[in-house]
Amino acid sequence: QKEVEQNSGPLSVPEGAIASLNCTYSDRGSQSFFWYRQYSGKSPELIMFIYSNGDKEDGRFTAQLNKASQYVSLLIRDSQPSDSATYLCAVKPPGGYNKLIFGAGTRLAVHP
Amino acid sequence: DVKVTQSSRYLVKRTGEKVFLECVQDMDHENMFWYRQDPGLGLRLIYFSYDVKMKEKGDIPEGYSVSREKKERFSLILESASTNQTSMYLCASSSRAGGRETQYFGPGTRLLVL
User: Fold this and answer.
1) What does the alpha-carbon distance between residue A20 and residue A8 come to, in Å, rounded to a whole number?
2) Distance between CA A104 and CA B31 in Å, rounded?
3) Cα A2 from Cα A70, distance rounded (Å)
4) Cα–Cα separations (whole angstroms), residue A73 to A30, A32, A50, A86, B103
5) Which residues of B touch A33 (CB under 8 A)?
């Protein structure tokens, strides 16, 4: 079992819709959770991080964390074609050095 | 703003050459990381460093070595490049402080080994 799992997609949504991206993780002691966006040929850039159960909102983005079920999700409201990218989920497992475990990413395509 | 820079965006090398990839960060971060990214495989950690002259193997260290002589600089070395090391190489840095584990990435180096 992979430590951090994401559906590879592509997830195709129409412009203006809500895109829902999901991620599950295997280590129940994981502490911090991150969503990165990566455009084709570019490096990952941080969108959001979340540490506590529940929702965290930032503009059109909402991260949701459920530690009991070991999943974290990212909702993108009013999706735009410019949101088309690969979204990487990253998890900090217990232990030192602040290493992150990355999922393989979900490719999102927003069509006009 | 955090800035992580990498020495080259694109690099073409021949099999057997020694290759140096350099990464510099300007945020006084203790931690620095080298990943490679290949289609369908995601980000894989090669090596990381949590302090000057300190290094730890990641998930795929074979064929690579690293050097961290100064806090801001972390170098990845391919001792004898092989075609299976053709990949996108990404450097990242982060603080060691708890609650500040966000990793910031450089622009990446796309390496082609012929």
Assistant:
1) 13
2) 22
3) 13
4) 15, 13, 10, 14, 19
5) none
pLDDT given for residue B99 in this prediction: 66
* Nearest-CB residue to A97 (from B56, B99, B107): B56
Instruction: List the Cα angle B107/B111/B112 in 5-degree steps.
Output: 150
The C-alpha of B79 sits at a distance from chain A's nearest C-alpha, in angstroms, of 25
So what's the pLDDT on residue B39? 87
The first and second tokens of residue B78, run together, are 């391919």
A2 close contact with B: CB closer than 8 A: no
Per-residue model confidence as pLDDT tens for chain A (112 residues): 568 999 988 999 999 999 999 999 999 999 899 999 999 999 999 999 999 999 999 999 999 999 999 999 999 999 999 999 999 999 998 876 778 999 999 999 999 9
Q: How far apart are CA B98 and CA A82, in angstroms?
A: 33
